[in-house]
Amino acid sequence: KQFNPKNPKSLALRTHSQTSGWSLTEQDPFNNVGRTCIEAMGAALGHTQSLHTNALDEAIALPTDFSARIARNTQIYIQEETMVTKQVDPWGGSYYVEALTNEIAHRAWEHIQEIEKLGGMAKAIETGLPKLRIEEASARTQARIDSGRQTIVGINKYRLDHEDPIDILEIDNTEVRKDQVARLVDLKGHRDEEAVKKALEAITECVRTKEGNLLDLAVKAAGLRATLGEISDACEDVVGRYKAVIRTISGVYSSETKQDPDFIKAQQMCEEFAKREGRQPRIMIAKMGQDGHDRGAKVVATGYADCGFDVDMGPLFQTPAEAARMAVENDVHILGVSSLAAGHKTLIPQVIEELKKLGREDILVTAGGVIPAQDYDFLYKAGVAAIFGPGTRIPLSAIKMLEILEGE
Q1: Percent helix, percent strand, percent coil in the chain, to nearest 5
Q2: Domain that holds residue 190
Q3: Which of 69, 93, 124, 203 could crosslink 234 through cysteines, CB 3.0-4.6 Å?
Q4: Which of 205, 239, 273 delimits the end of a domain?
């Protein structure tokens, strides 16, 4: 439906949608069962028609069968025991929900108008605006959490003095990669190469002339055992490959946390470093491998910039060699590797080795993102200077890195 801001009920709320537990925490992870249940219940009450519930350990690793069963049963419990799915509109008539719906509809409309002025979503994506707005909101939220203004149970309040590691599903990334490469070699050795070549050429021609059904041609190529990369390359030959605009925002994080004593200390240490070294401490944040989750990395980059660091952001999907070369070319003091794809035990040792090849062993390598506590010792032995897992306050990680630099 077309939304009319004068009539908030015109916003189509009963469309197909999907939800998941977005606020999972690595610390005290059994809290995630309750979080996910509440979020799933909220989605059901809001008429979602496609529901995904995250497992309690997905902030740490891929889910185990044990945690996946709890996540699945959360949905069944809501469906079979609460009976909310049998009601047409459980929240009908609630002033509280109507007020929230009205507020979010008007805020969403402001974003829609901003996008329309740019010529639509495709044009807006080319400018990087939607991504920028998401990153601004994320930086504000992280600042509120770091300063304690927003409570996350088990992170900045009611935190355990000691946590025993939970059993996780561990994947050997190196072996997985070897197996996949072997499968691809075997696949290409047994397919009809001439047929695949013609199918890919047909895709390229369709993209060039804009005549024909591109999806149908892609499906046919896949049926002939063309790989996703080959199909993508066939399109790229004509239209190129989209690369997200890399922007770092400033002032957003500090606007929410400038009175925090740790933030003030980090700023002072940056100033002292600059006086001593003749330039600001410089850090590069890298996303290597097939990990496209860069929102957290952008939030961290924003926080470090507001502390006083010069910050470089590497593009998505860098190889360790590319990340190391960029770090050397930018003459950084620190290379911060962020991972949410469980590739840390493979990629981080490789990037450290690449830095050695370039004669820059002096560049500190730090690790962040989703890294199980069980893997910390492996990374330290590989040469990682510091590890900052989920829940680490940005000013404290900045202070730690500066202390390491001072101690050299």
Answers
A1: 55, 10, 35
A2: 173-239
A3: 203
A4: 239
Task: Identify whether the C-beta of residue 202 lies closer than 8 Å to the C-beta of residue 237.
Answer: no
Would you say residue 16 has pLDDT above 50? no
Angle between helices 295-307 and 394-407 (to 10 degrees): 60
Beta-bridge partners for 284:
312, 335
Same domain, 267 and 379: yes
In the chain, the number of structural domains is 3
CA–CA distance, 227 with 183 (Å, rounded to integer) = 11
Model confidence pLDDT, tens digit, residues 148-205: 888 888 888 888 887 777 777 777 777 888 899 999 999 999 999 999 999 999 999 9
Query: Measuring CA to CA, which residue among 150, 116, 113, 111 is closest to residue 131?
Result: 111
CB count, 10 Å around CB of 355? 23
Residues 256 and 228 grouped into a single domain: no
Is there a domain that residue 270 lies in? yes
Look up tokens 């044009």; give the residue: 123
- pTM (predicted TM-score): 0.74
> For residues 32 and 54, is the Cβ–Cβ distance under 8 A?
yes
Who contacts 144 (Cβ-Cβ below 8 Å, separation ≥6)?
150, 256, 257
Inter-residue contact 286 to 270 (CB < 8 Å): no
Q: Provide the CATH number for the domain around residue 336.
A: 3.40.50.280
Coil, helix or strand at residue 357: helix
Separation CA 341–CA 193 (nearest Å): 33
The helix (H) or strand (E) run that includes residue 337 is: strand 334-339
In a domain? residue 156: no
Give the Cβ contact number of residue 368 at 10 Å.
22
First to last CA, the chain: 62
Strand partners, 286: 337
What is the percent of the chain where pLDDT is above 70?
93
Distance CA 175, CA 404 (A): 34
Quick check: is 271 in a domain? yes
Chain position carrying tokens 């939030």 = 299
Residues 234 and 272 in one domain: no
